[in-house]
């Protein structure tokens, strides 16, 4: 059966996305100084380590030019081929830093989602508890309605997304 124009376009976009994923950053040929050397003289690295220190996590160290595949836990991959494929577009210490940015974003988004679901569930449970409040007492009724309105506003806020502007850290084009 022939594909529709929409299906052909979706397949084309999927192929292009895959090609971008496996392609190397276009800036690599123009970076003669290894990233880890750059960090030795970059005072802003302390801003990164401060964030990790505030989280109680040991900050990453860039002591040499090894890439991300050298640091990934073996438990994440079933074969060496899987490891090579996962990091094929990232080279040396700069590639390791780029992968860290990607994975920190992924971890942050997942943690935000977990927190969001937790708060929604707890607020909905609290709202359900309000249904059992004795509404015959005007004081209880007023307090329950105010609490329900506050919970509704909080739930509405939790439906929103947060936007942050981030500088581009990878340059890949077809």
Structure description:
The protein has one domain. The protein is 59% helix and 0% strand. It has helices spanning 5-22, 35-40, 45-55, 80-86, 92-130, 138-158. Helix 5 (92-130) runs antiparallel to helix 6.
**Quantity of strands, as a count:** 0
> How far is it from the N-terminal to the C-terminal residue, by CA?
30 Å
Rg to the nearest angstrom? 24 Å
Residue windows where pLDDT falls under 50 for at least 5 positions:
none
Number of helices: 6
Main beta sheet: none
Task: Please indicate the count of domains.
Answer: 1
Average of per-residue pLDDT values = 91
- What is the strand content? under 5%
Tell me the structural class. mainly alpha
- Written as H for each helix and E for each strand, in order along the chain, the element string is HHHHHH
Q: How helical, in percent, are the residues?
A: 55-70%
Tell me, briefly, the overall form.
Answer: extended
Quick structural gist:
By secondary structure, this protein is mainly α.
Write the layout of secondary structure elements.
Elements: H1 5-22, H2 35-40, H3 45-55, H4 80-86, H5 92-130, H6 138-158
Helix pairs in contact: 5-6
Index terms:
6 helices, single chain, mainly alpha, 174 residues
